[in-house]
Amino acid sequence: xxxxxxxxxxxxxxxxxxxxxxxxxxxxxxxxxxxxxxxxxxxxxxxxxxxxxxxxxxxxxxxxxxxxxxxxxxxxxxxxxxxxxxxxxxxxxxxxxxxxxxxxxxxxxxxxxxxxxxxxxxxxxxxxxxxxxxxxxxxxxxxxxxxxxxxxxxxxxxxxxxxxxxxxxxxxxxxxxxxxxxxxxxxxxxxxxxxxxxxxxxxxxxxxxxxxxxxxxxxxxxxxxxxxxxxxxxxxxxxxxxxxxxxxxxxxxxxxxxxxxxxxxxxxxxxxxxxxxxxxxxxxxxxxxxxxxxxxxxxxxxxxxxxxxxxx
Length: 312
Fold this sequence. Notes:
Blueprint: H1 9-25, H2 33-48, H3 56-84, H4 90-101, H5 104-119, H6 123-130, H7 143-190, H8 202-225, H9 229-238, H10 248-259, E1 262-269, E2 272-280, H11 287-311
Antiparallel strand pairs: 1-2
Helix pairs in contact: 1-4, 2-3, 2-7, 3-7, 4-7, 5-6, 5-7, 5-11, 6-7, 7-8, 7-10, 7-11, 8-9, 8-10, 9-10
């Protein structure tokens, strides 16, 4: 297997196989490789993180070392194993690797677990379900706030967990998909601006920003195609830039604009209220709008798959 996949029928077949596996099997829970990687990442953090009294520069340097130790050996070893296997297995192995790096069905299942009780006005169950996919305090959320939190997560993770791994798989083959997924996982673990991670997690956050930059802009265009296109692009450009994440902001703003709802506003993170910019235009979302957000991601996946099958 080539280190970098050539654009060929094998690439398209691998993508199709991965999407079918993901929809059929969903995300493995107890034996997913990312669980093992998380344990390895925790070891790297314990080994390399220095005291908060150390200089910010030293904390960042150690964060770079921890990121490199956590990600690069795993990505290189897995790629080497794939490279050593017979070429006729290229598409099948590519499909398996990509399957383990995308979370399309998992995203859908989490959203459905929120939408169903929300439709039934069972806010307690809906709060518990949304608490599994967002880092904010969900214990006091009302229907609108639950819908907002879940829609923001669906739109953002549509980019992070589905489209970005596919993009890097197309660009760099299995190595690209693995590199992206491990980097994105470390951002989720270390990328918070809390005192203990502000400098140590700087490298993980910045690398994730870089790897998501192009895919996020493609997702903006994708969301715009299946909704109010001009409004989606307007919101992504003028509202997304004011968001704390340079990639999540445009993606969520485009999705909100395409679906004609308003997201953002006040949210509580780690006990502190944060006033976030408004994203999108229109009324506050309801349960049905969460269903529409899932459909938006689904349509985007179908479009990407079709284009890849046709063009490669």
